[in-house]
UniProtKB/TrEMBL annotation:
InterPro entries: TPR-like_helical_dom_sf, TPR_rpt. GO terms for molecular function: kinesin binding. Residues 710-730 have a biased composition (Basic and acidic residues). PROSITE patterns: TPR. This is Intraflagellar transport protein 88 homolog. It is found in: Cell projection, Cilium, Flagellum; Cytoplasm, Cytoskeleton, Cilium basal body; Cytoplasm, Cytoskeleton, Microtubule organizing center, Centrosome, Centriole. PANTHER family: INTRAFLAGELLAR TRANSPORT PROTEIN 88 HOMOLOG.
Length: 812
């Protein structure tokens, strides 16, 4: 039934769908054109180049719209209207035949040039002037950023002048209503800032007043804060308070951070005025609204100033509870199993944000440590109990790691009070703590024992500090110091080098390494160390002195003088440096320069015997004996038992022709030193020349003294001969060696006893003083110029504990 409705097409009615595709007009067959004679003739003659027949458009075109668009289906001379898309593409039936197809209009040539801007118009002149003003403000700010304050002020002034010219020009053109108030405000504000930066406070205040009094400037009242800052710099605290409060009144509560900063400034001004109660009011308000570290520290200072113990404790508790707003350091610890996270953490480990966090934390720890050290002696009956309370409070806060540092500061306080026993006991408590604290405590203990010259204990604790933290440069320096004292200079140098390897800025290690090389005779390496140290410590007097001393040892006096001259610019009143300069110039033969520096040294320190002696000898050499008298009299006051200075005074009187005064001086010397042969000889000579009766008496005394001197010398020679003979007999045989040894010992004791007694023409303490000079250690440091004796070498090179180990290992 279904197939009944289907009708099949008969076969004879079936059409071929592809019929006609292979049929084509032979006219379009271009393969035989080169054989077509007619086509070739047309190409060779002008027949093929005839102009096309011109097409004349019809005179009437049906218009369908107001713009002349043909109506749909309109017929032009029997031809249908072309499609709109074809017409838009560039085709037009109205164009004559043979025209060039140019839809983009390129045949018309390039576009005409733009019209030039006419800069002579008033509007253009105003715009150019405004741009110049803005450029000057920017140049002024950039100059200030570079630190060129004078140039920044000049640019600001020039911007002000051009801005006033701009305002006048607007008034002349009648456009005063369009004055750029923002530009005027910027010019005045920048000018006031540059005045203040150049300490021209009066001009700055006047400029700020111009801005504040102009009602057209919005929010100008805030600039009263800047005016208050200037009054504070001028120490006009009353006006500073007034302007801070005026600014506070003009700032709404929406700007709470700004109000808090102004309140903090008000509190600081009250502290400078000594009004601690008013300052406390401001700081307490800030700590209740928006607590911060600085305000908490200032509040503790105010409570300390008024002596309120309980409120000091409360303020300290508030201080350690102030939130820092930073993340824990744990987030910067990279996990081991995530390489992507490790790369991210490595990138942010030392970025600007983490640096800011570290700085904020370090500042908070500094304020807390300072507060604890300040209030600890005041909040309890003893500073130890106060430190214990502070330690307990810190242990329960977010700054728990500061507790150990407070304990170390407790030991340092004991040191300042000269209680070394308590300091040592406090530091020994850290031997069982973690490695960092143990290393710091052991370092300080080593330093203490080294100062007490207990070098074994110093070495022990230096080893303990190194075992707890091998990278502790202070511990390595202390270990090197103990080796230096043992005179194992090579080993000491190794420890100093290791300390420098761990911390290249450890100046103590570098200084001591230079001294070690100096002791080893490696002067060039020592010089290199001290030159590096001078690049770090530009104004260190000790480093400059060591450099001068090394150049002197290297026989380069000109460089030594140059470094000592630099040293005088740092310590211009150091008498020993001036004396050393005089000595170097004297060795160079420049007596005038030597006299100048010796005289300056005497002026600052008139008790240096070597300087006094040189000045007196200089005046004697220049035939000014009268001027030499005052120097030798000064030496007499310093060393009254030294007869040579009094003899020099008498000699100066005699050389200057004042024989009467010379005679009185010799008589006075004879009363004090009756056995002085030289004095008696001059008395005999003067009395003979002056014809005095005392000449016989002095001649008799002279003979007696000379005879005693001969007897003394004979006894000394006999004692030496007997001791030498006893030694020879003792070495000859062992049978009678016992008695010979006794004789030798007796002779030696006699010789030693005679050596300690002065001769008749020597000062009584000449030998004793010489022995003292040879072993005396001057604790004043390397600035001191040393006399050219064994004592000079000792104090310049061998004094290690006081002047050369400048190693302050106590924590800051």
């Amino acid at each position: 039934m279904f197939m009944e409705n289907v009708h099949l097409v008969p076969e004879e009615e079936e059409d071929d769908l592809y019929t006609g595709y292979n049929d084509y007009n032979p006219t379009f067959d271009g393969e035989d054109l080169h054989n077509d004679e007619g086509f070739q003739q047309a190409v060779r003659t002008s027949h093929g180049r005839r102009p096309p027949v011109s097409y004349i458009a019809p005179s009437r075109i049906p218009v369908g719209t107001a713009m002349g668009r043909p109506m749909t289906g309109a017929v032009q001379d029997g031809a249908a209207r072309p499609m709109t898309a074809v017409r838009a593409a560039g085709y037009s039936s109205s164009i004559a035949r043979g025209s060039v197809f140019d839809p983009l209009g390129q045949a018309k040539g390039p576009a005409p040039p733009l019209e030039t801007r006419n800069e002579d118009t008033p509007e253009e002149k105003i715009k150019i002037l405004e741009k110049k003003v803005n450029d000057l403000i920017e140049e002024s700010c950039l100059a200030h950023a570079r630190g060129d304050l004078q140039l920044s002020l000049e640019k600001a002034k020039e911007a002000g002048r051009k801005e006033r010219a701009l305002v006048r020009q607007r008034e002349q053109t009648g456009t005063a209503d369009h004055i750029n108030l923002d530009l005027t405000y910027s010019v005045l504000f920048n000018l006031a800032n540059q005045y203040a930066n150049n300490d021209m406070y009066t001009e700055a205040l006047n400029t700020y007043q111009v801005i504040v009094k102009n009602k057209m400037f919005s929010n100008a009242g805030r600039l009263k804060v800047n005016m208050a800052n200037i009054y504070f710099k001028q120490k006009n605290y009353t006006k500073a308070i007034k302007f801070y409060r005026m600014a506070l009144d003009q700032i709404s509560n929406a700007h709470n951070a700004m109000r808090i900063k102004i309140m903090q400034n008000i509190g600081v001004v009250f502290i400078h005025m000594g009004q601690y109660s008013d300052a406390i009011t401001s700081f307490e308000y800030i700590m209740s609204e928006s607590p911060n570290i600085k305000t908490g520290f200032n509040l503790i200072l105010c409570y300390y100033a008024i002596g309120d113990r309980e409120r000091m404790k409360k303020a300290f508790q508030k201080l350690i509870c102030v939130p820092l707003g930073i993340d824990d350091d744990d987030k910067y610890i990279p996990p081991n199993d995530d390489p992507h996270a490790n790369m991210v953490i490595e990138a942010i480990k030392n970025d600007k944000l983490h640096q800011m966090e570290r700085e904020r934390k370090a500042l908070a720890e500094k304020y807390i440590m300072t507060s604890a050290k300040l209030i600890a002696p005041a909040i309890e009956s003893s500073f130890a109990a106060g430190f214990d309370w502070c330690v307990d409070m810190v242990k329960g806060s977010q700054y728990v790691e500061l507790a150990n540092d407070l304990e170390i500061n407790k030991a340092i306080t004991y040191l300042r009070q000269r209680d070394f026993k308590q300091a040592v006991e406090t530091l020994k408590m850290f031997e069982k703590k973690d490695s960092r604290v143990k290393s710091a405590a052991a370092t300080n203990l080593s330093f203490l024992y080294f100062l007490e010259k207990d070098y074994d204990q110093a070495d022990r604790y230096a080893e303990l500090a190194m075992s707890a933290d091998r990278y502790n440069p202070a511990a390595l320096v202390n270990k090197g110091n103990t080796e230096f004292v043992k005179e194992d200079y090579e080993k000491a140098a190794e420890f100093y080098k290791e300390a420098l390897h761990n911390d290249s800025s450890c100046t103590e290690a570098l200084y001591n390494l230079g001294l070690t090389y100096k002791r080893l005779g490696r002067l060039e390496e020592a010089l290199d160390c001290f030159l590096k140290l001078h690049a770090i410590l530009r104004n260190s007097a000790q480093v400059m002195y060591q450099l001068a001393n090394l150049y002197e040892m290297l026989e380069d006096p000109h460089q030594a003088i140059e470094w000592l001259m630099q040293l005088t610019s740092v310590t211009p009143t150091d008498a020993q440096v001036l004396a050393k300069l005089g000595d170097l110039y004297d060795n160079e033969g420049d007596k005038s320069q030597a006299f100048q520096y010796y005289y300056e040294s005497y002026r600052y320190f008139p008790s240096n015997i070597s300087v006094i002696e040189w000045l007196g000898a200089y005046y004697i050499d220049t035939q000014f004996c009268e001027k030499a008298i005052q120097y030798f009299e000064r030496a007499t006051l310093i060393q009254p038992t030294q007869v040579k200075w009094q003899l020099m005074v008498a000699s100066c009187y005699r050389r200057s022709g004042n024989y009467q005064k010379a005679l009185e001086t010799y008589k006075d010397i004879h009363r004090k030193f009756p056995e002085n042969v030289e004095c008696l000889r001059f008395l005999v000579r003067l009395c003979t020349d002056m014809g005095l009766k005392e000449v016989q008496d002095y001649a008799t005394k002279l003979k007696k003294v000379e005879k005693m001197k001969e007897i003394r010398e004979q006894r000394v020679r006999s004692g030496r001969d007997s001791s030498a003979r006893g030694r020879r007999e003792g070495s000859a045989g062992s049978g009678d060696g016992q008695s010979n040894h006794g004789t030798s010992a007796k002779g030696e004791r006699l010789s030693v006893k005679l050596k300690t007694l002065p001769g008749s023409n020597e000062p009584y303490e000449a030998s004793t003083q010489q022995e003292i000079d040879a072993s005396y250690v001057d604790p004043l440091g390397p600035q001191m110029q040393r006399p050219k004796t064994a004592a000079r070498k000792r104090t310049e090179e061998d004094e290690f504990a006081d002047e050369e180990l400048g190693d302050d290992l106590l924590p800051e």
